[in-house]
């Protein structure tokens, strides 16, 4: 061994000693050494030595990863000495050797080096590491599955970052560069399939360890396929789509040898992992590339259907069941929903998919007993951890929306049967009632908000009778032997039912169940401000309570947030100039930043932001803050995109356009990054338009979309014509009520944890009935949105001769063209 490595070897060995003092000394030495040029290369050399004990090599690999993490890229530490950065020549040495070293390293060391490689590639790939992709591609054809595993693991870690990203110019260039991987990756998958088939055909199912490794590699290929297709379908993938889909069909229908089954029912088998990943890919194509995917839909729907018929209730198969159900839900929400309209099909869905996945399982019961808070978050509030229950509920809601009469009648029969089962033996059959409560909620909710719970319900479900007969007895102690404490899970179910349907249930009955009322002071103050006429000065007594509202302690309780936001909005609307003059705006913006980062309360952050841009002087006050605000919003959109956040962002953008003008908004966004406005229109505005529901919101989005088309010079560019056409088609759909279904579903998708976090489970917020805030119409001056849209298009036609007729002909269906012609004729506008 090189003598220069001896001090490092001793330090890493000492860092594993049981003596804390020795560990401290070793860490101090390594920290100082890591600040010197050449350190990373020395650590890599140490890792390669077989004579070094494995635990020491692993410790060195962890240290190398951390060195890359903290010293590869210059970081701004503010005042003081700038942190050490690895010199460029040393970086080139690392990049020249790390891939081969990682591929040949033992598994525990490989895992750390793989993370280090991902960190490097996140900064350097592809622009500063042109040799990485060719190097990986060259090794993909290896007959050694262990080597292929290393290559695929590396590629998977590199391309994970493409998921959920904006299609920027830089990303487009990276994707174009990475198309060189598509054909070799497909060839690798086909070679793996051949090896899997050969191994599976061997006597006794072949070597289980080898088969597991091969299938693990297949899952990695599917994961890379998903990542590379997340930003959009490229030509290379579209040209080879038939071959890719043939492979995914093979794996969805793959019958695993018994030797691959897991002894632990809570552990996912490698085969189920592959199938779940394939289902995730199918969902992506169903949602993003429906037209290109249409010819494969019948085959894959049958594959997934057959798969679900075989899936057990073992926790180890939850991931597979979840993605398979979500795929069927995606199909049911599409134009291909007729695949499920038969009575026998719906009956099979209820009996074989919905009810088995809604039923309480032992592991769920154990979770409630051990940690009921997590149970509520995960299964009752619909937290980030998706569950099969939530997936089954979403499938019911989608099917009810498509086939309301059939589904309600059919599923109500199953509800009745489960309630009858419970009535015969309440103590033994409480799980039947638990399932029935979930099924009724899924059937009944058609739209939901944080402030009011369910806002639109299925008229075919008699909620009041169900509440009085099945829910109220659970809360009042009459739900069976032993009273309410006998089955606490049913009590939790009943509480969820009441909070969800609180706007539809008899108020007298609700007050009888919840005699203790909470403090409503924030709502009362908000209402007192709201009823003051605009322009009338706000008394100093109100200003005295404003600073305490910005105290972080108040905002720590989730239940306080809705009332506090309402009060802040009232202040800003009635005394916005005073808020600025008294120096409170920075603190208000801090509250906005806190809320926008929360999945539970991001919509409340948008409420504040909307009031700010609407109430304050834009050029004198708000313009200076908008670059930072855009960065916060787009960073959150990229890192943690949800349907609720996207919908809220669209509504804010529409309000901003309606109040301040389309060109101002477009230029403000492009000020963050040239061309960003068009990306936002394509990836946020257009996809979120179907999620808008309600007359005021429909009007706001329609008017704002028309103004963007007619006023924003970015959308007048020749290369924006396709986007303009799609926006125009979506605009007509919005005016004709085409967004209602999507809005209800998106509200549900964005609900769950986010909705209930502000609606009751913190026991801190309940809406004061007499302080009810009427729905705000942001555009009261617009009485006929269709006329405003027609006038905007007339303005567009005058300013861009010939463009509007071309868009109409290219993007609108004959029915939509007829509708648009009617708007123009009624408004006396010519667009040709």
Strand order across the biggest sheet?
1-2
Summed over residues and divided by their number, the pLDDT gives a mean of 87
Hey, roughly how much beta strand do the residues contain?
under 5%
Tally of helical segments? 44
Shape: globular
Q: Distance N terminus to C terminus?
A: 82 Å
Stretches where pLDDT falls below 50 for ≥5 residues? Answer: 739-766
Structural class: mainly alpha
User: Which percent bin holds the helix content?
Assistant: 55-70%
Radius of gyration: 30 Å
Largest sheet: 2 strands, antiparallel
Number of strands: 2
In short:
The protein is an all-alpha fold and 832 residues long.
How would you characterize the overall build of this protein?
The protein is mainly alpha-helical and 832 residues long. Helices cover 68% and strands 1% of the residues. A two-stranded antiparallel ribbon has the order 1-2. A hairpin with a 3-residue loop joins strand 1 (445-449) and strand 2 (453-457). Helix 8 (145-159) runs parallel beside helix 11 (208-229), helix 20 (388-402) packs antiparallel against helix 40 and helix 39 packs across helix 43 (803-811). The longest helix has 22 residues, at 208-229. Residues 739-766 have low confidence and may be disordered.
Question: How are the SSEs placed, and which strands pair?
Answer:
Blueprint: H1 6-15, H2 20-33, H3 39-48, H4 54-71, H5 88-104, H6 107-124, H7 132-140, H8 145-159, H9 169-178, H10 182-201, H11 208-229, H12 235-239, H13 241-252, H14 270-288, H15 290-310, H16 318-332, H17 343-358, H18 362-370, H19 372-380, H20 388-402, H21 404-424, H22 430-444, E1 445-449, E2 453-457, H23 463-476, H24 488-500, H25 507-513, H26 521-530, H27 540-544, H28 546-549, H29 552-556, H30 561-581, H31 585-596, H32 602-615, H33 618-622, H34 626-639, H35 643-660, H36 662-670, H37 676-688, H38 695-711, H39 721-735, H40 740-749, H41 753-757, H42 785-799, H43 803-811, H44 814-827
